[in-house]
TrEMBL record:
It comes from the Archaea. This is GYD family protein. InterPro entries: GYD/TTHA1554. It comes from Candidatus Methanoperedens nitratireducens. The lineage of its organism: Archaea, Methanobacteriati, Methanobacteriota, Stenosarchaea group, Methanomicrobia.
């Protein structure tokens, strides 16, 4: 399983939805689980984006499919990053 960091920013429509239904965040996390993505940690953040979510998935295609699904709804914009554990990185450099 690979880890990814997804940063997301609500659109105006997404902010309206969240205001009406604050539990929507947890509903989305359950939908991600059904798509094969496990939410490990999630934070509301201040700054250039609204949420930072750390997830695990079996591969990039699983992540791509989920991200496209959510982008197509028009409620959020995202950026996704592959997160490599530092020990794995060091091991790769040592080979």
């Amino acid at each position: 399983m690979a880890r990814y960091i997804i940063t997301s920013k609500l659109t105006d429509e997404g902010a309206k939805t969240l205001k009406k239904n604050p539990n929507r965040v947890k509903e989305v996390n359950a939908e991600l689980r059904e798509m094969g993505i496990e939410v490990l940690e999630q934070y509301v953040v201040l700054g250039n984006f609204d949420f930072m979510t750390i997830v695990e998935a079996r591969d990039e295609n699983t992540i791509f499919k989920a991200v496209v699904e959510y982008l197509s709804r028009g409620s959020v914009r995202t950026a996704t990053y592959r997160a490599i554990p530092v020990n794995e990185f060091i091991e790769t450099l040592s080979q």
